[in-house]
């Protein structure tokens, strides 16, 4: 695979433009189809050498053509092959029709397929370009295959999965392996598409990297260090604690202080030079009993906060973990509107009835990070959340533009978006990160990076990645306290 190309994310529309540009450059499109089909056939022979019958389900477009090429090659290798075609085979056009004509055996209607023991299915029905719900005939076949537990190798993407959003269009195959070409699509990484793909392989079928890169228009990527490494703080020898940033985490009242401490500890572990917990008077002693390296500062109301903010070294704050929902949170945010702020949990919920009040306070250079889970996102951005035409990436991008903030749209497929349109899909988080307090740790990590001078979007993306890394080190059964101790600076 050409260096770096397989790590790109192209939307189905961008990949179509790549195919068109490749043909216009003189590359024979049928040769590309032959290589794609060969990759699929090779995958089946490698993983299922004892297959009794290869069942190739072919659709009405070029994805079906890939299936016919694979069927021919498997038949040539001595495998028993049967092809089931969606629609009339005579209606195939171009390269797909040429591939169909090269298949020597009769083709059967898709609706007649009944799974057998020993079958291995090649799903070449739709691929990544599906933009509507699958028809009932396909949904019925998907259900029969699911009930029979027949293994499926998907061509490009399991049929029924939207390549742009990862959502299921009515019904979708669950593949043991997905064979894609040149680059991945967002649907390979977004849920539930990521789970439905099984193991993903990306094959180079011979399109030059210059063509692929030229057609990539949208700034969507997997959340990897190359997205933000260049803006991480220097590890030079000449430094001190204030150069490494001072992070302030606001605590809740007595009895509700644990979340802030986990956030503060994560911030310290993530590299902040100083971390202070700002707590109301009744919570100072409670916090002090648990703290050593983390400092404490008593703060009751916004007047005291305003006086403290005369110290210009205080530039980065985390507000929300255990803080409490209500007017106090809104007043504190207003006082911090010219600073860098990670707003999480109760801080987000405090603006559920007046989100524009929040957004209007943070104009100019983005310095606000919002970390909503699904429910919080819906309360802050109800119209965006309800738009079924948008996928998770598009929703995060629209929210970031509206709020002028970096958005961390949390979940198994966390999406980080910037007001300028950039977006990253995170993939390194283990499922056991879904535990109480995990989000508090994440807020502290992001805050620590911002305190060290990392811009909001890059701090959010790097923080999510570090959070996933810490979860992998902590292992199954982790608690949020253990997670915080496993955070490592980048």
Can you characterise this structure?
This protein has 490 residues and is α/β, with parallel strands linked by helices. The chain has two domains: 5-217, Rossmann fold; 225-485, UDP-N-acetylmuramoyl-L-alanine:D-glutamate ligase, CATH 3.40.1190.20. The chain has helices at residues 12-24, 29-47, 62-76, 94-102, 136-148, 186-189, 193-196, 209-215, 258-269, 281-288, 302-308, 327-335, 346-349, 355-359, 374-380, 382-385, 392-403, 438-451, 456-474, 480-485; strands at residues 53-58, 81-85, 107-109, 119-124, 152-155, 177-181, 199-203, 220-222, 246-250, 274-279, 295-298, 316-319, 340-343, 368-370, 406-409, 415-417, 423-425. The longest helix has 19 residues, at 29-47. The model has no long low-confidence stretch (mean pLDDT 95). Residues 15-213 form the YjeF N-terminal domain. (6S)-NADPHX binds at residues 62-66, 127-133, 156, 259, 322, 373, 440. Its cofactor is K(+); Mg(2+). One of its GO terms (molecular function) is NAD(P)HX epimerase activity.
Which descriptors apply to this entry?
490 residues, 2 domains, 10-stranded mixed beta sheet, Rossmann fold, 39% helix, UDP-N-acetylmuramoyl-L-alanine:D-glutamate ligase, alpha/beta, 7-stranded parallel beta sheet, single chain, elongated
DSSP E strands, number = 17
- State the end-to-end CA separation: 28 Å
**Poorly predicted sequence stretches spanning 5 or more consecutive residues:** none
Strand content: 5-15%
Regarding CATH, which class of the largest domain?
Alpha Beta
Query: In the residues, how many domains can be counted?
Result: 2
Q: What would you call the structural class?
A: alpha/beta
What's the rounded overall pLDDT mean? 95
Rg (C-alpha, Å): 26 Å
Number of helical elements:
20
Helix content: 25-40%
Task: Report the CATH topology name of the largest domain.
Answer: UDP-N-acetylmuramoyl-L-alanine:D-glutamate ligase
> What is the strand arrangement across the widest sheet?
8-17-16-15-14-13-12-9-10-11
The CATH H-level superfamily of the largest domain is Ribokinase
Overall spatial form: elongated
Binding site for AMP: 410-414, 439
Subunit structure: Homotetramer.
Cofactor: K(+); Mg(2+)
Organism: Rhizobium altiplani
């Amino acid at each position: 695979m050409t260096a770096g190309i397989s790590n790109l994310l192209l939307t189905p529309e961008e990949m179509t433009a790549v195919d068109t540009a490749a043909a216009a450059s003189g590359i024979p499109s049928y040769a590309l189809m032959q290589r794609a089909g060969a990759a699929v056939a090779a995958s089946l022979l490698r993983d299922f050498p004892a297959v009794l019958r290869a069942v190739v389900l072919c659709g009405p477009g070029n994805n079906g053509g890939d299936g016919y090429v694979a069927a021919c090659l498997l038949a040539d290798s001595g495998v028993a092959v049967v092809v089931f075609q969606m629609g009339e085979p005579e209606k195939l056009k171009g390269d797909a029709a040429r591939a169909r004509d090269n298949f020597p055996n009769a083709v059967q209607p898709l609706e007649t397929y009944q799974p057998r023991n020993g079958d291995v299915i090649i799903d070449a029905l739709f691929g990544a370009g599906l933009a509507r719900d699958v028809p009932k005939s396909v949904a019925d076949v998907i259900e029969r295959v699911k009930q029979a537990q027949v293994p499926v190798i998907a061509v490009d993407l399991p049929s029924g999965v939207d390549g742009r959003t990862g959502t299921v269009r009515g019904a979708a195959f669950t593949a043991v392996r997905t064979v894609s070409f040149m680059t991945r699509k967002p649907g390979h990484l977004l849920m539930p598409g990521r789970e439905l793909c099984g193991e993903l392989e990306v094959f180079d079928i011979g399109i030059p990297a210059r063509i692929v890169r030229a057609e990539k228009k949208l700034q969507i990527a997997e959340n990897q260090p190359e997205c933000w490494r260049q803006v991480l703080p220097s590890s030079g020898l000449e430094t001190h604690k204030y150069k490494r940033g001072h992070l302030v985490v606001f605590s809740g009242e007595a009895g509700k202080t644990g979340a802030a401490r986990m956030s503060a500890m994560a911030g310290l572990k993530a590299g902040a030079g100083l971390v202070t917990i700002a707590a109301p008077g009744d919570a100072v002693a409670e916090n002090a009993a648990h703290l050593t390296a983390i400092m404490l500062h008593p703060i009751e109301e916004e007047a005291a906060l305003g006086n403290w903010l005369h110290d210009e070294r205080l530039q980065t704050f985390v507000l929300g973990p255990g803080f409490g929902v209500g007017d106090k949170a809104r007043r504190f945010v207003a006082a911090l509107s010219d600073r860098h702020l990670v707003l999480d949990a109760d801080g987000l919920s405090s603006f559920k009835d007046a989100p524009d009040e929040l957004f209007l306070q943070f104009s100019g250079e983005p310095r606000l990070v919002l970390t909503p889970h699904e429910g919080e996102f819906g309360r802050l951005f109800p119209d965006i959340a309800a738009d079924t035409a948008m996928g998770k990436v598009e929703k995060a991008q629209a929210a970031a533009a509206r709020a002028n903030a970096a958005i961390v749209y949390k979940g198994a497929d966390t999406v980080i978006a910037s007001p300028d349109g950039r977006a990253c899909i995170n993939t390194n988080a283990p499922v056991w990160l879904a535990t109480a307090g995990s989000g508090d740790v994440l807020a502290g990590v992001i805050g620590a990076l911002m305190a060290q001078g990392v811009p909001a979007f890059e701090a959010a993306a790097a923080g999510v990645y570090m959070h996933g890394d810490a979860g992998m080190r902590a292992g199954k059964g982790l608690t949020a306290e253990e997670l915080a101790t496993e955070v490592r600076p980048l």
